[in-house]
Design a protein that fits this description.
Layout (H helix, E strand, L loop, with lengths): L1 H30 L8 H13 L3 H19 L2 H20 L10 H21 L7 H12 L3 H19 L2 H23 L4 E7 L3 H11 L5 E6 L6 E10 L3 H11 L4 E7 L14
Antiparallel strand pairs: 1-3, 1-4, 2-3
Length: 284
């Protein structure tokens, strides 16, 4: 059991380092050559580098020290240790990859693909229970003490950073950076929720028992029966409740239609599922 936990921790550490490297590539290869910004404290560090030539990899560490002190006390040791690994490795990679560039002429292309690379790296880190410091920790601390949503706090921080960029640098930089941050957030969401999204399916049928057997045989997902009653007929019914991946919907529809063409089926987007068959390690 202990070995299993150690193995999972080793895998998380490996992916956090890989994610930090990917994030650093996005910053140095696409954002910096086009004078663009990322979100969070890294964005502030980049502004200071543009204005005063202060190395961002140093500023990032300095900015995060008080946050890690506060986070260590209030957010849990495991999260802080993994986040410390993330910010330390990101800072090292920002230094090691300095000067690496991709020959892209268009600022919009740089913003879009830079945001995609940043979001992929940050998403891998966050998927493995770490963070890259900055607004991630600020958002969690504010949420803990003032109950503001994490997303709202992160958005507010990025708004302040982009407003400062518009004032200190230029409006175009802020606008292109906003596009990159938007793409980055979408990439993070894709990594955290998985590219193969889940769907919650509720089926109402007079042939629920037969349908469940066929779904077990062909879709191979867990099924729960819910007891229901028709409001008009007052007839007791069994409802089928199950969660499937998007790619399994076609087979599920086929089975439902074959067993009971008149069945009522509701398909709902499901953001996150945990449990047997849908563990967080399914993708990473």
């Amino acid at each position: 059991m202990m070995g299993s936990k150690t193995g999972r921790l080793f895998i998380r550490v490996f992916y956090i380092i890989i994610g930090s490297f990917i994030y650093s590539l996005g910053v140095n290869m696409l954002l910096v050559p086009h004078k663009l910004l990322s979100g969070g404290l890294t964005g502030i560090a980049i502004i200071l580098e543009y204005l005063f030539s202060i190395p961002k990899e140093i500023t990032v560490i300095i900015f995060n020290v008080p946050l890690f002190i506060g986070g260590y006390r209030f957010l849990g040791k495991r999260f802080i240790y993994l986040s410390l690994l993330g910010i330390a490795s990101m800072s090292a990679f920002l230094y090691l990859t300095k000067g690496w560039t991709i020959d892209v002429k268009d600022d919009m292309i740089a913003a879009i693909f830079g945001g995609l690379i940043l979001g992929t790296g940050a998403g891998i880190v966050m998927r493995n229970r770490g963070s890259l410091g900055g607004t991630d920790i600020i958002s969690l601390l504010v949420n803990k003490f003032f109950s503001f949503s994490v997303g709202w706090v992160a958005t507010a921080c990025n708004f302040i950073i982009l407003s400062a960029a518009a004032f200190l640098l230029n409006v175009e930089t802020a606008m292109f950076s906003m596009v990159g941050i938007f793409v980055s957030n979408k990439a993070v969401d894709a990594i955290l929720t998985g590219f193969n999204h889940k769907k919650t399916v509720i089926i109402v049928s007079d042939k629920a028992e037969d349908m469940a057997q066929e779904l077990f045989r062909h879709v191979k997902r867990g099924i729960t029966f819910l007891n229901g009653q028709g409001a008009y007929t007052h007839k007791d019914k069994k409802l089928i409740y199950m969660v499937v991946r998007t790619m399994e919907l076609s087979k599920l529809r086929e089975v439902v239609h074959r067993v009971d063409p008149g069945a009522f089926m509701s398909i709902i987007d499901t953001r996150e599922v945990q449990g047997k068959g849908f563990s967080v390690e399914d993708i990473i």
